[in-house]
Amino acid sequence: MLEIKSGYVKLKLNNGQSKSFDFVSSNFGGKFNLNSMHVYSVDPSTGCQSTSIVCSHDHDLHACDNLIKPYALIIDRGGCQFDVKALKAFELGASMLIIHDKTGSALQRIGAHDASIGRIPIPAIIITSFAGDELKQMNKNNDLTLSIVPSTDNILYKTWTDLAFYSFSDVLDEMILQLESLIEKYVDVQSFDIVPWIRKKIDDAKLLKFKNIETDEL
After folding, report:
1. CATH class for domain 6-150?
2. Contact 26, 85 (CB under 8 A)
């Protein structure tokens, strides 16, 4: 079986509502479970210290009464290394780790220390900031399931990698032009998140430019 470097997370609620987002995978862990699984959060959300699985009812987090296997755990980026998070998720019974990249960065493949790679039994994926926010919003009553749909080629993975290492100008007007040209370049890539991610970067750059103008006028 070919290595899965990227693909799509398909989310589905009991009422039939569904959404899909991009993911990039880890360079560690076992095979992906391509069947449907439930999703739970952890407390604390970074999953670095003593961590417990929590469920949600209208966003009110509490201890889970009944976990439905198989399940994935969504854990926020930051606070400790990815391999620490993955091992913690495995200890908590998860079949997969989802990293919520709240930094707003382009997706990059996540790794582990060489000594840890062979000790991590479960795979991990990383999703964008807005994808993680939407997942948590949809899962407010713990009736969300997800499935992994691998990309059939490396174009999605390569595009996210190119964006992660793209050299953006420090001059805001030039950065905005660069970003607008990237939309034209990548508009036909099979992706749910790349163009929205670029548009968010454009909006952020325009907002920063506006704030700079206001500051200059004071």
Report:
1. alpha beta
2. no
pLDDT tens for residues 86-103? 999 999 999 999 999 999
Instruction: Dump pLDDT digits (tens) for 104-144.
Output: 999 999 987 765 677 899 999 999 999 999 999 999 888 89
What confidence tens digit (pLDDT) does each residue in 25-68 have? 998 998 999 999 999 999 999 999 878 999 876 667 788 878 99
